[in-house]
Amino acid sequence: MTTTLAQMQPLLYPPISSNSLNWMSFALVVAALCIVAGLILYRRKRSKPLAQATPTTIEQFRQQALLELANITRPNAGELAGSWLQQINQLLKRLCSVRYPEYDSHRLTGREWLAFLDSRCPAAGLTRWMILAEGSYQPECRLDEQAIDALYNAIQIWINKHV
């Protein structure tokens, strides 16, 4: 028994009522709103600025930063200081990324980086310490004891007044 195309009946699909279309579109809209709300809440929770934190949290953050600064091994006078300067820069960049997430301070270099630090805490006077921004790139960067102590104190002032 062979049937030809002309003899075949068209396929019948159940009719879709407008009521079921309304429910499907309503469900899609609700699902989309839930996803958007979830993304907004996740982003707010992830990027909560330190400025909104409690004073206890800020003080703990400051103490942790000062402790980390103290744990960075300072070079002796006349020794290579590039590694020490690089570690200090990394610490400052991490602090800035937490404290000021709205700025791309981790991308700043040279004078712009020091100007950014000074704009947050002019009392530290870090713009006069160009060696902080460039010293880790110099193969023979050496500092005397006075410069090491003065830079260390400037960083401490910046952390105490900035964070």
Question: Which key features would you list for this structure?
Answer:
163 residues, mainly alpha, 2 domains, 0% strand, elongated
Q: Give the number of DSSP strands.
A: 0
How many structurally independent domains? Answer: 2
Low confidence ranges: none
Q: Give the strand content.
A: under 5%
Class by alpha and beta content = mainly alpha
Radius of gyration: 30 Å
Can you describe what's shown?
It is a single chain. The chain is mainly alpha-helical. The protein folds into 2 domains: 20-49; 53-162. It contains 6 helices and no strands. Helix 2 packs antiparallel against helix 6. The chain is elongated, with a radius of gyration of 30 Å.
Short structural summary:
By secondary structure, this protein is mainly α. Helices cover 60% and strands 0% of the residues. It has helices at residues 18-46, 55-71, 82-99, 110-120, 130-134, 145-162.
Task: Annotate the secondary structure layout.
Elements: H1 18-46, H2 55-71, H3 82-99, H4 110-120, H5 130-134, H6 145-162
Helix pairs in contact: 2-6
